[in-house]
Amino acid sequence: MTASTPSPRATLSVATLSVAMIAFNEEANLPRTLESVRFADEIIVVDSGSRDRTVAIAESFGAKVHVHQPFAGHGEQKNIALDHCSSDWIFLLDADEVITPELAQSIQQVLALGDAAPYRAYWIPRSNLIFGRWMRHGGFYPDHKLRLFRRGSARLSEGVGPHSTPQFQGKRGTLRGDMLHYAYPTMHQYLEHMDRYSTEVGKLIAAKGKVSRSPFAFFWNIVLNPVATFTYNYFFRLGFLDGREGLLLHLYHSVYVSWKYAKAWEDAKK
Questions:
Q1: What is the pLDDT of residues 31-56, one digit of tens each?
Q2: In whole angstroms, how far apart are CA 104 and each of 19, 73, 152, 187, 207?
Q3: Which residues contact 105 (CB under 8 A, 6 or more apart)?
Q4: CA–CA gap between residue 3 and residue 25 (Å, rounded)
Q5: Angstrom distances, CA of residue 41 to CA of 14, 120, 237
Q6: pLDDT value, residue 233
Q7: Fewest C-beta atoms under 10 Å: which of 47, 233, 252, 264?
Q8: pTM given for the model
Q9: What is the pLDDT of residues 85-143, one digit of tens each?
Q10: Among residues 108, 123, 248, which one has the least CA distance to residue 188?
């Protein structure tokens, strides 16, 4: 009796997955986030000196915690987390994000293909909770993020503030299933973050010399650009369909645009 030749799919080995995260005082979010990635082979958490139970909670889920101080920057800190990963694939996750069961299944299907996976990086659709409402319009859904990629194939841009993104060369796929982002449950949290982010981004703008020196540039960046941003997102991208919460979001997002250029102008004066 001759042995049958195994099919190519039968010889594939399932790839492994590391989840890479950075954290600082995230005890409120971390249990929900880590519970959603229990299927991963490895969880890496780079902590920036949390003063709450962040480290203890991460370790209770079996995460490998690396304390790195001081905070090196968003892209820089996340690259440190990537460097600690040892699996075939990496999923980059924020501490206030959750992988839904449908997305987890999509990820596992990619891992099951092993080296036969058609892409080396994948876009993930993200849904954002803001002011207690899941935003579906105005450019906030599907908020695609490049988060799943082969280890060593992507690095985050550095020196660009809070909006650092993975840099990957090549074709990318898109997975099914949402990643839930518990972004700003309250307006207080949103305004606090936008104040902090606008300060950080304003310093970067000032360092690049884009400081609204002429009267027209000043008026454009401080007034017209925010108005154009609100008009485009709220009307043309249908942000008004997200109700009162959508109105507040796009109104205060346009204020953030004004803030960052005003702070850059002030930093340049100093």
A1: 999 999 999 999 999 999 999 999 99
A2: 12, 29, 22, 30, 41
A3: 177
A4: 58
A5: 11, 18, 39
A6: 98
A7: 252
A8: 0.91
A9: 999 999 999 999 999 999 999 999 999 999 999 999 999 999 999 999 999 999 999 99
A10: 248
